[in-house]
User: What shape does this take?
Amino acid sequence: MTTLNETPSVRPAAYAGQSPAMWRYGGIGAILAIACILPFAVSGYRVSQFSQVLIFAIAMLGLNILTGFNGQISLGQGAFYAIGAYTTAILLDKTAIPYWATVPIAGAICLGAGFLFGLPALRLEGLYLALATVALAVATPQILKFKGFDPWTGGVQGIQVDPPAAPFGLPLNTDRWIYYFCLIWTIALFIIARNLLRGRTGRALIAIRDHPLAAATMGVDTAHYKSLTFGVSAMYAGIAGALGALLSAYVSPDSFPVLLSIKFLVGSVVGGIRSISGVFIGALFIEFTPNFADQISKAAPDAIFGIFLIALMYLMPKGAIGILDFTAVRLRRVAAAKRQN
Assistant: This one.
């Protein structure tokens, strides 16, 4: 990543050629190869954990689009995650629809719900919007416990669903197949987000975040983009929730506390809230750090987790991706200086 004030003279000569792209795509290919081999190199429990990492990454990717690129602070991502999970569970429990079809349906429902919620939220900004989304996260588990919805949601008992089996006779157990199913959705949604943010829509979102008045003056429909972004963010959370329901094979209102939304925000900030690749680092952090904290101190694991978080925020104020970008720029400048000498 180069900065705006960087002059052409300090850029590596190969930057204009194909070498950076080859390195980038080679790195992506290596990561995908490792991701494909991973389920055969770790235990079944670890496979489930890495599946959860992919699911968290999807939910946080939607949050990064909303908060990092559009500037709308949300602490209600867990509510749409719950809606997606219950959509999949109800469809599997009440209908004969195949499990794979429930995921896009959950995403579509959350897209509509997020868009509708985004309309009244247009009048709110900053901390007021954050409080409104917190209210949504707090209210959702209570709504799911409403007795009038018991025939559909199962009340406080929740819904048990059958875990999906590998199709086409593939020699994969349930844990591995769910991992690959989540990986396919993660790759697809990552590509969609990347293309969305690199195009005209992404530039409009960033303009609204940085200079909303200037963006409106230039003809950007800020209300439309804000509502649409809220819907897209909710869609990502809903798809993540649907995959989470398939992974756990069980949903209940207590599975989606307000702490889940805070966890998504923590992961986004740790990875880099203004990036899309940083969500994977953030997902690894929120999935595995509590385990490490519990191993260090079983008496106060939350305190250890808090210490880790404070240390990371002090050392990496722009998230892990910010450190990697800074390091990459420095290495390019050093390489360019050596070539000039």
